[in-house]
């Protein structure tokens, strides 16, 4: 179920991934990952609030640091679960994590002006997180629940973005 406030009324029912809200639609059915996603979304929302409410740079950086620390922990946990399950698309999934990590980490170093952090990450984080959960993480959950059996050969077409080299 998509919250009607997430629909851009100017377009034809396009989901606005800039509005990050936990809903049952994001549940993957893997309890540990679902709980981490809930917490992660709460941290990204805190960062978004700091940006949109014009909080001082210190508060914005504090909330960003918390989100980054959690991101690192979540990525490691998710990777462990996938490795234990012998997930055939693990390399693709990790490449997506690395792309997000590189972008977020670049902003967290303090080398980028606060205004650029405000503008770029407040858009990027929620959009990437919603898209990633709804594509790559969902693909893993379906696979884990029996769409494929660990250790069986899989076709490259089974990748979330089969036509995109990673």
Automatic annotation (TrEMBL):
Transmembrane segments: none annotated. SUPFAM superfamilies: Hemerythrin-like. InterPro entries: Haemerythrin_Fe_BS, Hemerythrin, Hemerythrin-like, Hemerythrin-like_sf, Hemerythrin_metal-bd. Keywords: Iron, Metal-binding, Oxygen transport, Transport. GO terms for molecular function: metal ion binding; oxygen carrier activity. It comes from the Bacteria. The keyword Metal-binding applies. Pfam families: Hemerythrin. Residues 29-143 form the Hemerythrin-like domain. PROSITE patterns: HEMERYTHRINS. Belongs to the hemerythrin family. PANTHER family: BACTERIOHEMERYTHRIN. This is Hemerythrin-like domain-containing protein.
